[in-house]
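User: Some background: our group keeps a shared notebook of sequences we're curious about, and every so often someone picks one and asks for a predicted structure to add to the entry. Today it's my turn. The entry only has the sequence so far, pasted here. Could you supply the structure so I can complete it?
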Amino acid sequence: MAGDDTGGATPMIGDTSLTAAQWIRQETGAGLVALRVPGLEGSPHQRLGRWSHRVTISGLLVGEDAADDLASLQKLARDGTATTFTADIVTALEIQRVVVESFVAEQVVGRPGQYAYTVVLAESPPLPPPARVSAFGGLDGIGDLGGLDDLGFDGLDDTLAGIADQAGELTGALDTALAAAAAAAGLAAMAGGIDAIDNPLRPLLDTTGQLAPVGDAVSGILGNLRGLLG
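Assistant: Of course. Here's the predicted structure to add to the notebook entry:
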């Protein structure tokens, strides 16, 4: 394809016009994988996502800007910087960004200001959003794979938040009960001494002594649960 002879748009890589492009080749790999099924004649294919579009261009850099155009293409090939590409052959492909995968230039000695080149461009789409780790290790934000909601766990985060709130309420109630028991023990002590056999609140003191270590253990468990659920 010659840029001016065919009447089509001049191919451009970034800001560099390839006015003397002589040949353009475009390739697309469908990204299909053949599946072997026992007893089945032939192989069904599964699409895993196509490969990047590739475009190979050969031509000449001529004219007053030939040296500058050569330097621009060499810089793109050296740095690997993504850039734009336009040409009639990729009109239906919706290529947004490309990188120079390889670049070859030749100069015939005795012909200054004229360079032959072959450049291979590869489509370089933007990366998808990063995956997010949700409750129970599920992954959200990874395209078609989805997260736990796709597996029937709708509202899981809200449920876990409710459990955490209930654990907090239980911790508060337990602390209140233990404080009341401690106050009762103080009253019992004033009523006739903690160790007095005839102390009328002696059964309460015994019960309080038994509940204290249990209450501490339950309080620790609830605290760990709240920490686990955030």
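Suggested note for the entry: The chain is about 35% helix and 20% strand. Residues 1-6, 142-149 have pLDDT under 50 and may be disordered.
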